[in-house]
Each structure stands twice: as structure tokens, then as C-alpha cells.
Amino acid sequence: MVLTRAAAIAIASSAALAVVLASSVAVADGTDSDGDGVPDQLEDATQRTVAASVAGDQFSVSSHLGSGAVEDEFDLSYHAGTFSLWYTQSGGVDSSYELQVANLQTWQDLNGNGRMDPGEVSRTTTLGPAFTNARVVASNRTDADGGVVYTFLVRSNDGNVSLNVTLAQRFERIDGAILSPMEARLDLSVRQGLATSGENLALGFRMGTYETPHLEDHSWHEACSCFAADEHEINITASGEGSASTVFFSWSNKAVAGGTSIPVAFTGPSASNPYGLTLSYSLGTSAPASTVVQHTTLGVRSAVYEIRRTASPEVRGDLPLFAGTFAAVATLVGATIVLASRRAKHREETGRKP
């Protein structure tokens, strides 16, 4: 088949347009600026606006995402050993709870089952007074992807228990797990030396809420997002006029004692004690001078996050690639035109029809 000059130019131009349009599509969909395993595109879409303040033995954080009909907010506050978490969304109802780090217990495993049972508690120390007037030390830093990470550290007055809270605008990797922007990571450190020979430790929590707490075998971000593994969760859902909303408290099924991973046993909530939770640690032969570190999370199930997470990927231009491709295509078009012109001239000279 013999092509006319116009046809050759049209084909070359069409090919050029296709290549240029293709090159304008983003090639960085998988870019991960801070190396946390979450693509920047998802982090950009779900980055929250965070405001934090600290005063004495308390702090408060407000985290907001979206606007208008697609908007939500959660507030986390702390005062003297008690956390308060509140969540609301556009067109929905509010949900909330209070979580008190209530007591520290020592116990003896009399029946050898590795968990604290009734009648095994040796001593109970109420932690409220230990955190009264214990100053909150706050700091923040900016990650490589531009997200701000906030940290709040509280040490009890007697030095036996520390609370370390981390909250971020974007996703943040901590010790192999990924903290989402809809959560605050709470690490509790307990001095193991409080337990004498043959004794173990336990942390008691008390939850306050207007709704009924529900215990789950897996946490929300473990089951739905694969951001963490091997966790349990207590969640509270408020429903009524508008969309339901859910807040939760989750904890790892493994703690760290003296650098060694140990199992975490728990009791509650139950029908007789719906608002209580105890996490117990069988210390075994771990060094008494070390600490026990328990990872927990206070979080919300963000409706806006789910909308943006499942939205179609944004198409963004890549300017350097576009410019380079355009220059190359321009050369291709020019060469095609020159060749077509020479061929037409040759036909004219030899008397052939196009």
C-alpha cells in the first residue's frame, strides 16, 4: 500500500499524540518518599490536619480530614492517666470513650496456666495519683514526605510506669507496624522490678462510654488494612439518626520484656465487668531489672478515609517525561514529513502517480 503525504503526516501525528498523552500519565503512583510501605498517593489523599497543645499534666490533639458533606474529626485528650477519644463525621452521630490506666498489679501463677486468675493477685497499686501533676513532654518532627509526627511522653511520679503516645498526619512505620493517621499509638512501659521473685505483672484499664463495648479477635487495621498483626480490639459504635461511627482501643498480643517477646493474656470485658480490661504478663526468667513494654492503639474508623482510599487513582502529569517525549516526537514528525516530501518529488520526476 502506498501512502500519500497527507496520510503519512496524519499517521505520524496520531502516533505522536498517543505517545505524548501516555507520557503525561503519572509514573510515580508507587512512590514512597518516607519508606513506610504506603504509597505517597494514598498518603496525600488521606493526610489529616492536626492541631496539638500541651499544659502541665495534660495534652489535647484535634485531627481533621475533608470538608463539607465529606468530613470527619477526632479529638484525643489526656489528663493524669486518663485518655478521652471522640469522633464525629458529616451526617453522622458522635462516638466516644474514656480510657483510664487504672492500676498495676503483681500476681502469682498458682495454677500454672500463664494468666492471672481470681485469687492470684498479690498487690494492687492505683495509678491515678502516680500520674497526677506528672508533666507531659511533647515533641514533633517532620518526615521525608512532609508529614508531621507528634510525640507525648509521660512518666509517673514514682518512675514505675511511662506512657509514650505517637500520632501523625500521615502514615508512620513504628517497630514493624504501620500507624495510620486515624490512630494514636500508646506504648506503656512498666518497670519489671516491681515484681518480686515468683511474681508477675498486670496492667488494669477502665473504660467509660455511653455505648456497649464489643470485643474483637482482630483489630480494625489488622483485619482490613494489614497495618499490624496479632491484635485484639474493643470497639464502641454509636448509631442513631445519620451514619454510625466507631472508635476503638486495640492491643498487641505480644509484649516485650527485657528485649524478649512474651505473650499477653487478657481478661474482660465481660457481662459482669463490661468496662474493665486487664492485660497480664507471665515474666518467667526475664531479667528483673528490665521493663515490660505493651503496644496499644486508640483509634477511629474514619469514614472519609474509606471514601478516599477506594476512590479512583488520581492522574497526574510528569512534566520532565512529557517534555522529553514531546521533543522526540517532534523529531519523528519532522523526519516523516521530509521523507514524504522527497518521495512525492521523486514520483513527480519519474511521472508516477501518487
Provide tags for this entry:
6 helices, 2 domains, 18-stranded antiparallel sheet, 21% helix
Give helix and strand order, one letter per element, not per position: HHEEEEEEHEEEEEEEEHEEEEEEHH
What is the number of helical segments per DSSP (H or I, 4+ residues)?
Answer: 6
Number of strands: 20
The average pLDDT is 81
Helix-strand makeup class: alpha+beta
> Largest beta sheet, briefly?
18 strands, antiparallel
Task: Describe, in plain words, how this protein is organized in 3D.
The protein has 354 residues and is α+β, with helices and mostly antiparallel strands. It has 2 domains: 5-25 and 317-350; 50-309. The chain contains 6 helices and 20 strands. It has an 18-stranded antiparallel beta sheet that branches. Strands 10-11 form a two-stranded antiparallel sheet. α1 runs antiparallel to α6 (319-350). The protein starts with a helix and ends with a helix. Mean pLDDT is 81; it is low at 5-28, 314-319 and 335-340.
